[in-house]
Give the backbone structure.
Amino acid sequence: MSNLKIVKGGVVSALGFKAAGVPAKIKYEGRNDVALIVADEPAVAAAMFTTNRVAAAPVLYDREIVKGGKVQAILANSGCANACTGEEGLKDAKLTALVTAGELGIDPKHVLVASTGVIGRRLPVDRLLEGMKSAAKSLGNTYEHGLDAEKAVMTTDTKPKQAAATITIDGKLVTVGGMTKGSGMIEPNMATMLGFITTDANITTPMLRRALKLAVHKSFNRVVVDGDESTNDSCFILASGKAGNALIDKAGESFDLFLEALSAVAISLAKQMATDGEGATKFVTVTVKGAKSEKDAERAARAVAKSPLAKTSWFGRDPNWGRVLAAVGYSGAEVSDMEAEVFYDKVWAFKKGKVADASQLEKLAKVLKKDEFEVVVDLHLGEHSASIYTCDFSLDYVHINADYTT
């Protein structure tokens, strides 16, 4: 029986990890913009990266490093993405990893780097490395240390995003904790903009990779803010093994328990991202059920979650179910409008050709006044379902992105 518990915490909740976040003037004065996460010893590692063919220098570098299966430190910065910076950008990524390894006295092959911010600008290496050295002197494992690290990777985020969970495996308490950043340019298709997860579970590299892939599929891959996939999307997980559970090296009960805890943390972080979408005023879960296949359910839900027309109607508190059904229709999923139903929470807007009258529209309007609601489309064609986490499009979204680089 599961004994999963959601607890207050973040990236240093698991045994064997420290973190810090400091200001280094990479873009703003007096704001944390350099984060450092360090394991006491080389940790088992796995990662997933953007599928965007225009990948940032840190992604190119990290893809090779993580193949080794061991990582001890992650250096991250906000304010500059180090993307579309050519060979010089890749050299900068390598240099910052090398100097970080020297400062910490660890193997350079065990250092990952991550960047987020404006695309096309050269990384201010000197400032980043000064920040790294300051962070190295400030490392700790309290909640505040994790919060400082989280604040250092925020860009247009308006609030920190952290989560943690515990679960007992083989009589040992195993902890999973993490942090993420991201509120715009999000349809990851692999992970999130930047996600950092740690655990003290004792697990092999192949099983950690499998767990991350499965957890990402049901969490970060289900987040849509604006349908744009970043050049820097990365999700890392490090496992220290310090919980002392029997080694998880195959599928079975222990793996399932670990996956349950990891998924709980990842889903929490994913929902926090959607809630904090740029300019968002509403958190919306789009669920499609009754589909002929899981693929159909997901593609239909994703189409609704990405639709600018649907998202702007939610901002305007307009129960425009026609936009929802139209998005399902062009999604590629099999659908019959004479069989489909559309609900806002449990209030129907369209039922197999029957449309909401004035009385029903009043009930729908009350739902859309809420800060959080669910859009449900029942296709009545099968038994498969899928949910996507998203938000509305507000006027502030336009203002934030119109002025992002200037």
Observations:
- The radius of gyration is 22 Å.
- The mean pLDDT is 91.
